[in-house]
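Q: I have 813 residues here and want to know how they pack in 3D. Can you give me a structure?
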Amino acid sequence: MLSYENQIMLDVIHEDGLVIAAKGLGLERVFVSILKVYSDPGNLVLVLGTSSKEEEYFISQLESLDVKPLPKVITSELSVNERQLVYLDGGVIFASSRILVTDFLLNRIPSEHITGILVYKAHKVVESGQEAFILRLFRIRNKTGFIKAFSSSPVSFTAGFCHVNRVMRSLFVRNLYLWPRFHKDVSDCLNQCKPEVIELQLKQTPAMLSIQTACLDLIHYSTKELKKTNPSLDLEDISVEAALSKSFHKILQLQLEPVWHQLSSKTRQLVADLKTLRTILVSLTQYDCITFYNIVSSLRKAENAIRNSGWLLLPSFDTLYLQAKIRVFGESDQDEPELEENPKWTALGDVLKEVRDEDKEKREEERCRVLIVAENERTCNQIKEFLDVGARNLLMRLFKKVFLKKQSNKNNEKEETVSNPRLIVHPLQVIADPFALTKLLYTYKPDTIIMYDADLSFVRQVEVYQATNCEIPVRVYFMIYNGSSEEQSYLTTLRREKEAYEMLIKEKATMVVPEEREGRTELNQDLMRDPRKASEQLGWGSSAGTRQGGGPEATEQPLVVVDMREFRSELPALIHRRGMDIYPITIEIGDYILTPNICVERKSLSDLIGSLQSGRLYNQAQAMCRYYSKPILLIEFEHGKPFALRGQYFFSSDSSYKTQDITARLQLLTLHFPKLKIIWSPSPYATAEIFEELKKKRPQPTPEAAASITSENQPEFSTERFNSSLHDFLLKLPGVTHKNVFALLNNVKNLAELCSLSQEEISELLKNSFQGKSLFDALHSPLTSESGASSSGKGSKRFGDKKGRWNTKKARS
């Protein structure tokens, strides 16, 4: 390990805290070292926030260090008993948040014996999330174990809900350790053994410069129109420079999502257009002239011209399209297309020629190992083709494939490329394996690295790689277009990280952290069950932490039975925080059982749309109405997003499902199931408060009863089994109540048989002589109309089916 890595590890082992390191500085190497320290059967250490690929990487690294015992991974494939044995064996354990939450709640983990918890990707921890829930449960039951958190995303702590103070509160840590690239210890360490960097400032062609200028003009027009159309919104951060950033669309999404349903169609289109224009700008430096021309020409369709916000009709777009066409066909008519070569290809060819010339004087084993890194897999494949067939042949192949579609399949077939064992082309980001490039760097051990695309994180990775392998003199060729949007985007990323650290440093200097923040005493209010209103928990109301008025509190501890699948959402954590106990179990009917009679099926907006389209919601409503007297459909919106069914629902997805479709199908659902109640909730916080109100002064559910209700069982008190008209008719007769109506429905076949029963038999069924006499008299006493005519109770057979039967299944047969 490097000296600053050792210092990071010593700091966090000595005292719990949150470590925020700059991207690429090797925080994963520190994490592996900490896992090594705690990999001992005498410890029980849980790891949160890791993906399966990250777990594989950490275990493989520890295995290469001959660490025993290796960390264990708990998955859903393990039974409850097997999981308990794994916990008792000790060591480091990786497990999903969903498994750990249920095991904590059901006391399957020996909480008092847990040595501590390590949190990876701490910037993703929010107070209503599963990780924060686990940490709360841990701190409630264990006051001595440690909590150590790590993150390599400083910018995340300065935006949205991830402010550092809020995250540290959810993590129950007091100390903040900041390690930017400009930290003295980091700079001194990495400067001792620096790679040789050759920066290649490439010039864009005249056509590329014209296209870039035109595209920036269109972005400026769109941002100006966005601000002009929405003067009431705070859009100061929306600028041309911000549009060049990779995270631009996410920033715009955070700002506009709460009021998205209130925005005009023009504003929505402007947001979509800004994303399109940024794609065009990135494609200019990323792809070849033919691919770029295809992207631009596809926008000139009639439907796009009608739908867009007006920039397709501006002279700047005409310039953009014309220059894109010139790059392919040239300015004058000619038989052969001009096919402008990518300047980076030329520079890459020159660099590789220089490397080959140097290798001629070396022995085979001493020749350079070259690593070329590019933005994505598509660019890497194009680089491989260029190295194999040359620029002109590659462009001609693409030209024939796109514009001469009648060429034979032989001409369109891709030739096999030859993969030189001393030259590897690899993408910067691999979604399937986040450590793919890191593993390649340390196993292949290149001495020549060509950065085809600029990436801040990989630049630091190369610095760390050189510092740990000083015996390998590393040469880096850094390729970037001078004065381009690519260069500006790289500089903007660097500036934002610097500003984020400056903000974090100032906040750390002025931060007032109470001594009880770590939750090792009973004074920490975050560990108390909070019964405040949702508005107060979110900071919208008073901060009173006690209930006021409303009569005496229930002596019985409130309990909610929760389906295991619901632990993917925030709601269980918020229910527990409000003071209600939750019992996780697999239940077939419903998601939440609040009382023996109240069953709730929770649907997010996306779930609701999918359930309505597939018909699944109909079956779920039918099952709830059959087995519970008070079924509820809960439609829950996300916190910070519009609480309205107006216009399109999602910020940037294909929302072909309109408001009218949802409301129409919900109307049909309520007409078909009149007993089904619908609750609309603006956020999980509000849902937890609603649940508390619904449970007041009502009996608690039992997990065994909730689990025993399945579609195969026939409930005793189910109105769905009976003719609804006869059910309602019986309830209108004297002596029949909601409590005894099922005694009649379950024991008497039809109205004819009911009329044939004696008064004593009816009283025995109803278990009440007064109610039995009232019903018997109603059925057998003559009724006199105004005209004096009389009618007997036998006329009641006309209700229901022809034979007066009320069991619908028997009637159908």
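Q: Anything worth noting?
A: The longest strand covers residues 196-202. The chain has 35 helices and 20 strands.
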